[in-house]
Specification:
This protein has about 240 residues and is mainly alpha-helical. The chain has 2 domains: about 190 residues, no CATH class; about 50 residues, no CATH class. The chain contains 8 helices and 3 strands, in the order ααβββαααααα. The termini are far apart.
Length: about 240
């Protein structure tokens, strides 16, 4: 377990108070929603053990990530969670219908935060990093499944797939890869949302979901589906399009 000193705890709490009271209006609105969700998660799933992190609307270190958790901030304080701003704005390519379903978009953003909150719990309470699994090993899986059981979600596996687990979703994309169809109210236009259907119905569903997409996006989605038919299990974990 990582011990958070009084100085670090107090600074984080001051940072949160500043954001809620003094941040610019757009940031204050969306960060208030994120802090509210974080406190709910901390109380509901982690027994209130954690201190709110530095929550930032900022680009994660890897372009394909929706969010990330770092043990230190850019100025040396302990632990930050970054959420990609385009998810909140509804401009991310995977949120093509986001502007039409703000409540669904917020659900998706909250799910990204829930995922990152498990990483915070790993780092600060359990002291487990699981680097060989890219952070998504047995500890993350077990906590995802513990919370998922409360939420009524299907179990997930570790990020490294074994033959016996080929049909089980990875915890690296939890919880959004096991949410029921319609949970995001049409805000998310993404391949993993498509239900298990025969191929002809799968393409019909793709056309329905992408009727408002531009041509280039539709072509990328189709290419992703075609490529995934012959891809290895590891390749299928890659974010598409």
């Amino acid at each position: 377990m990582t011990t958070l000193s009084h100085v670090h705890r107090e600074h984080r709490e001051d940072f949160e108070r500043f954001v809620l009271a003094q941040a610019e209006p757009w940031h204050r609105e969306h960060l208030t929603a994120l802090y509210t969700a974080w406190h709910t998660y901390n109380t509901s799933y982690f027994e209130g053990e954690m201190t709110a992190p530095y929550l930032l609307l900022a680009e994660p270190k890897t372009p394909r990530f929706y969010g990330d958790t770092s043990p230190a901030t850019g100025f040396g304080a302990k632990l930050q969670i970054r959420i990609r701003p385009s998810l909140v704005q509804g401009t991310h390519p995977h949120l093509l219908h986001g502007s039409q379903a703000p409540a669904g978009r917020q659900r998706f953003v909250d799910d990204i935060l829930l995922h990152e909150t498990i990483h915070q719990y790993q780092m600060e309470i359990l002291g487990v990093y699981e680097a060989s699994y890219d952070w998504h090993g047995p500890t993350f899986r077990d906590n995802a499944n513990r919370i998922g059981a409360v939420l009524g979600l299907s179990p997930v596996r570790v990020s490294k797939v074994s033959k016996k687990e080929l049909g089980t979703p990875s915890c690296a994309q939890w919880p959004y890869n096991v949410r029921p169809a319609g949970y995001y109210q049409g805000a998310v236009c993404y391949v993993w949302q498509l239900p298990p259907l025969p191929e002809e119905k799968l393409y019909a569903e793709l056309a329905r979901l992408t009727r408002n997409c531009d041509r280039a996006m539709l072509e990328r989605l189709c290419a992703c589906l075609l490529a995934s038919k012959n891809a290895s299990p590891a390749t299928k974990e890659t974010v598409c399009p």
